[in-house]
Amino acid sequence: MVPTVEAGAGTMIDRIAKYGNPIYPAKMPSPGDTLSDTPTDAFWGQHGWHFTDKVGKLQEQDALLKDKPQLLSTRKESNQVFETTALAVKGVQEGTYYGSVQWGWEKDAIGKVKKLPLTLVSNDVPSSVFARASELWNKAKTSEGKETTPWTYGWSAIPRTTRRPSSVSLRRTPGWKSPIRERQNRSIRLRRKKNGGK
């Protein structure tokens, strides 16, 4: 988790503590797994792809993330802000970021909850806060004391002019589902206002 003295304090890669792969729909990884090796759990979503196979046939599957954000607390004036990014972890575009979006919810002083709008963060690499959370992830261990699968794609090595397929776009409509046919992950920022909170 990003320390309180840094920008984006409270941000972390959003995974259950025992799951060592930072890709959200991934199951528990085997030793030596890369980001692309660990199978996914349909309950949380699926990886996507879009490529032409050796016989010239187009192979494609939509990436999907299923999540119901929640904060197990009765605290008022709180929120959860998520950043979800799409990244190619295999194939000729491995290491390419396709953009990221921000979404979430907030609760006011009287306990009323409001959904935050889906907004575009970046057309390519994720935010610097996401990068910092990923850096800290790489240094962490699971709740079972196992090594985490490292987030191996850095930000400085990928130019902001990274080209994306022309068919890729990020939509801001309600019920948005990523049309990006590559793998996804997200970071989460937890904030709780002190004034008037319980």
Task: Give a summary of the structure in a few sentences.
By secondary structure, this protein is mainly beta. It is built from 1 helix and 9 strands; from the N terminus they run E-E-E-E-E-E-E-E-H-E. The longest helix is centred in the last third of the chain and has 12 residues, at 128-139.
Percentage of residues in strands: 25-35%
- The portion of residues assigned to helices is under 10%
> Which shape, going by the Cα principal axes?
globular
How widely separated are the two ends? 23 Å
Order of helices and strands: EEEEEEEEHE
Biggest sheet, open or closed, and with what strands and sense? 5 strands, antiparallel
Q: Mean pLDDT score, rounded?
A: 78
Q: How many structural domains in the coordinates?
A: 1
List unreliable stretches of 5+ residues.
156-184, 190-198
| Spatial strand order of the main sheet | 1-9-6-7-8
Structural class: mainly beta
